[in-house]
Structure formats: C-alpha cells, structure tokens
Amino acid sequence: MRKLYLIAVVMLLALAVVPIGAQDMTPVSLVLKWVPQAQFAGYYAAEALGYYEEEGLDVTIVAAGVDINPQVLVSSGEAEFGIDWMGNLLATRETGQDVINIAQIFQSSGMRQITWGDSGLTAFDQLGGKVVGVWCCGNQFPTFAALTKAGFDPENPDDVVVAQQAFDMNAFLAREIDAASAMTYNELAQVLEFVAEDGTFPVYTLADLNVLDFNEYGTAMLEDGIFARAEWLAEEGNEEIAIKFLRASFRGWIACRDNPDQCVDFVLAEGPTLGVGHQAWQMNEINKLVWPSASGIGIMDPAAFDITAQIALDYGIISGAAEGEGVTYRTDLAQAALDSLMADMADLDAMGADWSAPEVAITPNGE
Hints:
By secondary structure, this protein is of the alpha/beta class. Helix content is 38%, strand content 14%.
C-alpha cells in the first residue's frame, strides 16, 4: 500500500507545476548537527536558491551546538528533520525513540587518525604502546574498532594508551599524543593552517603527516544523514512533505558540487566561526564525502550500515543487533525524491560519477 502511495506522489510531483504564489507554504524545521559551516552547505544552498520554496516548504534551519541536540528536538516533535551520524541515531533508538534515517547524504566517513610523518606510524597496527587521541560522546568508536581489529585492547593501557582529546589539535601540535582524531574537513585543515609565532606559513603540509583512513581499514561509521520520526512520517501527508524536502535538499547538494564557491558564500552569510579559507577547504572535503553517490544521492549503502551497526553493538551503543531497511533506515522516500527529480530534470546528475575534486589552497589560520 505504501509503495502505491509513493508512486502516486512521484507522479504528482513530476507532472504538477504549481506557481509559488498559489501554494500554501508548509513550515518545517531542520536541525543541523553542529554550528553553521560548509558541512551543511547543501541545505543553505537549497534555501538560498529557492529550492525549498519551489517545493512549497518554508524551512527553518536551526544550528546545533553544545546545548542544541538534533536528536532531542526531532524526538520531541519540535523539529521535523535533523542531521546526525548513524551512531547517534542508533543510540537514540536504543532509548525507545522512533527516529529513522530517511536519506544518507555522506557516502563515506571524514574521520581519520593522523600521525607525524617522522614518527613512522603509517598503519593502525603500529599504534601499540602509543598515545592515541580520541573524542568523547560516541566519536571514539571508529578508533576503538580499528585498534581492536589491529590486535590491541583500547581499554588496556599496556596495549595502547587512549587519551581524551579536545575538539582541537593543540595536543597533537605539541606532540603530547602520537596519533590524533581529525575530520578531513576541520581538524586536519587546522594543522595545515597553523601559523608559527614568528609568522612563518606554511609550517606543515600533508607531506609532514600520515593519514590513517577508517574507510580503507573497514571500521568507518556512517556520518551525516537526514532523519525524522517514524510516527510523524506515518501521519497523513507527511511522507509527501519528506519527499519534497529531500528533492530540494538533494538539489542543494548537487549545486554545491557544481558551484562550490557560491555555496561557500551561502555559508559565510550564516556567520560561521571559521573564515573563508577554511570554509572553502571544508566545502571541497565535504563534497568528497557526498560524491560519488553510486546509487544516487541520499541512498543508503546497506554494507556501510552493517559495519556501523556492528561497531555500535560491539561497543555497547546498542544492546542488540540493529535492523536495517524499514526499521533503522528507509530508502523509499529518497528513491521517490530521486525518481521525481529525474522525471522533472532528465539531465540532472544525481550520482556525480565523473566528479573530481579540485585543489583548494590552504590559507593562514583559515582566513
């Protein structure tokens, strides 16, 4: 029955072009995972370019932070949509909340462990006896999984010393830790953007670092995805709203792939903490996580979900095996959005198979 309904929605979206002035705008809210930055450029682009408005949606984008949690706001019904990592969604579901992923935007993980090039530490199985920095709040588990796979017990300091790392690179720059957690689009750039006290720049380049990739090692966890409440989606008309929201959001991400400089401007208009140089680097690195999307933007890779769910089970985020399609995530809404977009715009590239990342210059302090 649901399938027939979604097919009908796709047909209506593909065939009906209603002037904006004739539509009743539907208000919805999107809660980001963090503060305004290029990590969320696709949503800012969808707003700035009028894609949400074209779908009849009045979207309020809410920046998150220490005191604003997307899982809490969506679970409580204060917002319709949120952006978060799958590990956090699984943890929220473990408490009994009915949140469900409806589109997986990031196809790969941006988290890495980095070491100094002169350390000789080029692989996870060389970290025995070393000091390895991890972040709190669920962000430690890809590193724990990698250390375990390499034969070390992350809870045994005789195997490896796990150090609580702040969300910066100060301990790494001071060589207080041997390996540090870093997102390609944030903390890695902060090392490269570092300016010496005497003004020397650059101090470090990628040639000075070893980058250990969880994706290649098979212990990456899924990151930014769009989620909603299953109960809200079950209410009459809300699946159609979700499809419209996804249509516009997908177009926003496609725009940021094809016009990254414009999207950086959209982000800068939101007043991010870090400057234009950092945002340009971040936009490029974020595009690498979204593209290519082999099955089309927003479609979940079941194998990637299985790895994430297994790590969540192994480290106690969840108490039992997580069910995938139709329970923890659903792909029908994203697929309906893609199908209707392709019906409307036959030349739209929703996979980005031929996209290649340009080179983006590192700037002093990201300015």
